[in-house]
């Protein structure tokens, strides 16, 4: 349950500092994890980014204050981090569907986003199939790209990268190069926030033991204990569903934690839209 407690501690820190500039480094420290892993787990659990949660919570509190206090709307706008009444009104209308002034006169409904409480759901209908394996370090070769995680850019850039790799036939080259212990083409996230805040290196690669072919780059994946989860069904829904189960059900109850090294999504050379598609998620644990 330490995982649940650390996530809740990070959320509580954000709530206690909603009126300030929130440091993601400090938030991640409260959760005892890296900025990248915290943002990733938060998004998987809530279907929104950390920034979106903070924005929604600020606008929720601003609406409450407008409806029950006599403070000037311009002062409330500044209090909740908006530089101009226009930018505040635009964001307010986008969330609530009405203007701040209409909120004050009770002429419309508002949309409230409440404070998050992390809980463990006991579910038995859908068991998770996984195994624990230990592997020595191995080499991957492929292509990589620096991707920003700010504002959910990674969720747009990574699918675009896969589209390019598939269109250029690079995925077929990688399947042919695959001669390592991990079979298939890999999607690999590597946290780079210690070099460039809020950035990851995303690799589309394969395990390859020989020389690095021209046009590709290489990296060593360190020796690890891995939790390997089965994924059954078409992409991307099946993969996203298992990720959410891992974060919301498996980690809170397993006693394991992220080891902090790269995790892998493993794709076989099959139709990604097939109902019978088999894939895997490899998570380094400690």
Classify the beta-strand content into a percent band.
15-25%
Helix content: 40-55%
- Poorly predicted runs are none
Q: How many distinct beta strands?
A: 8
**Can you tell me the overall shape?**
elongated
Largest sheet descriptor: 8 strands, antiparallel
> Within the CATH hierarchy, at the fold level, what is the topology of the largest domain?
Multidrug-efflux Transporter 1 Regulator Bmrr, Chain A
Q: How many domains, as an integer? A: 2
Mean pLDDT: 90
CATH architecture of the largest domain: Alpha-Beta Barrel
Q: Note the run of SSEs as H and E.
A: HHHHHHHEEHHEEEEHEE
- Radius of gyration of CA atoms, rounded to a whole number: 22 Å
Across the major sheet, the strand order is 1-6-8-7-3-4-2-5
Please tally the helical runs, counting DSSP H or I stretches of 4 or more residues: 10
Find the CATH superfamily of the largest domain.
Regulatory factor, effector binding domain
Distance between the termini: 15 Å
CATH class of the largest domain: Alpha Beta
Structural class: alpha+beta
What is this structure, in a nutshell?
With 286 residues, the chain is of the alpha+beta class. It has helices at 2-16, 24-30, 35-46, 50-68, 73-79, 85-96, 100-104, 153-168, 170-177, 237-254; strands at residues 130-135, 138-148, 185-191, 199-207, 217-221, 224-232, 263-267, 278-285.
């Amino acid at each position: 349950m330490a995982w649940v407690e650390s996530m809740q501690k990070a959320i509580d820190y954000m709530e206690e500092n909603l009126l300030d500039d929130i440091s993601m480094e400090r938030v991640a420290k409260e959760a005892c994890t890296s900025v990248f892993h915290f943002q990733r787990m938060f998004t998987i659990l809530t279907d929104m980014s950390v920034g979106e949660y903070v924005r929604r919570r600020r606008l929720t509190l601003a609406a409450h204050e407008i409806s029950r206090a006599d403070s000037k709307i311009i002062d409330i706008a500044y209090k909740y981090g908006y530089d101009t009444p226009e930018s505040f009104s635009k964001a307010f209308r986008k969330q609530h569907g009405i203007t701040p002034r209409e909120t004050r006169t009770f002429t419309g409904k508002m949309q409230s986003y409440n404070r998050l409480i992390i809980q463990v759901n006991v579910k038995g209908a859908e068991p998770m199939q996984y195994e624990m394996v230990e592997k020595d370090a191995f080499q991957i070769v492929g292509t990589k790209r620096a991707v920003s995680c700010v504002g959910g850019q990674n969720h747009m850039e990574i699918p675009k990268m896969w589209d390019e790799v598939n269109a250029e036939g690079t995925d077929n080259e990688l399947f042919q190069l695959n001669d390592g212990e991990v079979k298939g083409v890999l999607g690999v996230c590597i946290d780079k926030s210690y070099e460039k805040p809020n950035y990851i290196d995303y690799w589309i690669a394969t395990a390859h033991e020989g020389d690095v072919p021209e046009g590709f780059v290489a990296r060593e994946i360190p020796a690890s204990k891995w939790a390997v989860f089965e994924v059954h069904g078409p992409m991307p829904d099946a993969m996203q569903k298992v990720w959410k189960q891992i974060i919301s059900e498996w980690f809170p109850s397993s006693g394991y934690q992220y080891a902090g090294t790269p995790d892998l999504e493993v794709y076989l050379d099959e139709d990604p839209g097939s109902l019978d598609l088999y894939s895997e998620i490899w998570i380094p644990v400690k």
